[in-house]
Amino acid sequence: MTSLRNVVLLLLLLFVRNAFAGSFVFPKEVRTQQVATNGTTLHVRVGGQGPAVVMLHGFADTGDMWAPLVAALMRDHTVVVPDLRGIGLSARATTGFEKKNQAEDVAGVLDMLGISKADVVAHDIGNMVAFAFAAAHPDRTTHLVLMDAPVPGVGPWDEILKNPLLWHFRFGGPDMERLVAGRERIYLDRFWNEFSANPAHFDEASRRHYAELYARPGVMHAAFGQFAAFDQDAVDNRAFLTQGRLAMPVLAVGGDHSFARTMAHVMRFAADDVKEAVVRDSGHWLMEEQPAATVEVIRAFLAGTDRCETSPPT
Predict the structure, then answer these.
(1) pLDDT of residue 165
(2) Residue 292 maps to which CATH number?
(3) Number of domains in the chain
């Protein structure tokens, strides 16, 4: 049985690696649609069958980042992949970036799709929306996966804000938007380079793709709005925690060159059932730097066979 499991695992890793090689190419069964929700419209990918998994991206990415995970999960899951409010191909938005509000964006998408509950997998800013969704809708959240970013107001948030690497948390506003306009690639490259274990693993095709999306009218405004809402997010999350801790199973994933086990440390301030995973040879950009290893640990957790450490495939 062990030998058979190893063969299946190797095939899965090769499948995911090949899926990622065709950058942002989702299986042909995945459909895209614009979903009206909570006063805005989100660009959403939907496909597969079985228990639902919602995937929430972060800053400098869009829902496109989840292509390898979608390919691995949709054989036995219904995958739901929105672009966050104002980001990617979602409708232009100027307000509503508080994560408590964006959680209702996600709830509205699930309502429109007739989905009552889902696993939620998130990265970066997506973590913050996912946490707010799980806190507001614990009955709709079966598992929660948070990857390599803190949550405002949870655990050592005030200390995390002092880290000079996170200068961009306070960078925003109309002057900053004008400074970045037409220079989106320069701005985004700094994060892709500085937050990677090896910048070469965030490939040129991906950089061009995302830079073009973030250069669309209004997208950088929405991106800055995500960060500008952090103070209110911290207030909202502390209020959530006065009502009780998260009870659903939580997987906290960090790159070993980034948040690593700090992710689990943070989440244990807010959740009772926290497992941790550290993806080796990865910085912040887990899905770009080590897609196969990251997919493996997420899939194992959702299936109830989680592992605590992963290595990249050789």
Answers:
(1) 84
(2) 3.40.50.1820
(3) 1
Name the β-bridge partners of 120. 54, 144
Q: In what order do the strands lie in the sheet with 309-310?
A: 31-37, 40-48, 78-82, 52-56, 118-123, 141-147, 250-255, 274-279, 309-310
Position 312 scores a pLDDT of: 43
pLDDT of residue 256: 98
Low-confidence ranges of the chain (pLDDT < 70): 1-23, 306-314
Q: 215 is written with which tokens?
A: 């250069």
- Model pLDDT, residue 14: 45
In terms of phi and psi (left: phi > 0; alpha: psi -120 to 50; beta: otherwise), the region of 94 is: alpha
pLDDT digits (tens, 9 = 90+) for 179-229: 999 999 999 999 999 999 999 999 999 999 999 999 999 999 999 999 999
Look up residue 48 and give its two tokens.
């597969």
How many C-beta atoms surround the C-beta of residue 59 within 10 A?
19
> Which of left, alpha, beta for 193 (phi over 0: left; psi -120 to 50: alpha)?
alpha
Give the type of residue at 141: T
Q: Are 68 and 29 in contact (CB under 8 A)?
A: no
Span 107-125, pLDDT tens digits: 999 999 999 999 999 999 9
Range of the domain at 27: 2-310
Q: In the numeric block, which tokens belong to residue 242?
A: 């006065």
Which residue in 102, 104, 60 sits closest to 224, CA to CA? 60
Half-sphere exposure in the Cβ direction for 257 (13 Å, CA): 17
In angstroms, the CA 218 to CA 165 distance is: 26
